[in-house]
C-alpha cells in the first residue's frame, strides 16, 4: 500500500490507499479512518470512507495544509488492518418479484440462470457497506458475485420507489428514498434505510455487513411493505 494524498478543496484532502475495488481493502480503510479520527481529534470536521479512498475535511482555522498532510502521514505510519470490523450485522428481508424488481428476469437471462437461481446466489453472500452517498442512507454494498454483475441502465428511471434493491456492476444498494436511478431493480424491502428519528439517521454505515433474506408477498405486507409496482413506462426503462 502506497498512500497518495490529493488536494480536493482548500480544507479537504483525499487519501488514496488503493487503485482497485476489492473486499480486502475495507479493513485497511476502516483502520485508517480510526487512526485519522484519533490523530485529527477536534480539528476533524468530516471523514468519508469510500471503496479506495478517504475524504478528510479539516478545520483550516486550526491547521494549514502542510500540518494536515503531516498528520495524515503520522496516522498511516505502521498501519495494520482491523482484524474484526467495528460495524454491525444486518439481516434485511426482501421481496423478490418482477412487479417490484423488473430487471430480475433480464439479469437471469444475461447470466444464464433462472430467476430462482439469481435470488439464491444473490442472497448467499455477505455484503459489506463500503461507503454512503448519492442520497441520505444510500449505502454502496459489495461485492456482487461476478456472474450477477450487470451494467447500469442506459436510460435511468425517473422514479425508483423507496426500498428498491438494485445491482450496478458488482455493487448492490437499496434506494432509501424515492429518487431517479439507473440501477437494475431486483426486489424491494420494507426496511427503512433512512429515518430522521434514528440515531445517525442511516441504518447502514461504512463497515457494516448485510445479508439479504427472501420473503414472500404476505410477509412483505405484514412488515408494512409498499407493493405498488413500477409504472409500465418505468419498468421498461433501459430495456
Word description of this protein:
The longest helix is centred in the first third of the chain and has 16 residues, at 25-40. A seven-stranded mixed β-sheet has the order 5-13-6-7-10-9-12. A four-stranded antiparallel β-sheet has the order 1-2-4-3, with helices on one face. Strands 8-11 form a two-stranded antiparallel ribbon. The mean pLDDT is 92. It is elongated and about 55 Å long. The chain is built from six helices and 13 strands. With 239 residues, it is α+β, with helices and mostly antiparallel strands. A hairpin with a 3-residue loop joins β3 and β4 (53-58).
List the helices and strands and how they pair.
Layout: E1 4-9, E2 12-16, H1 25-40, E3 44-49, E4 53-58, H2 65-76, E5 89-94, H3 104-111, H4 115-123, E6 127-132, E7 139-142, E8 157-160, E9 164-168, E10 171-174, E11 179-181, E12 184-188, E13 209-214, H5 217-222, H6 232-235
Parallel strand pairs: 5-13
Antiparallel strand pairs: 1-2, 2-4, 3-4, 6-7, 6-13, 7-10, 8-11, 9-10, 9-12
Helix pairs in contact: 1-2
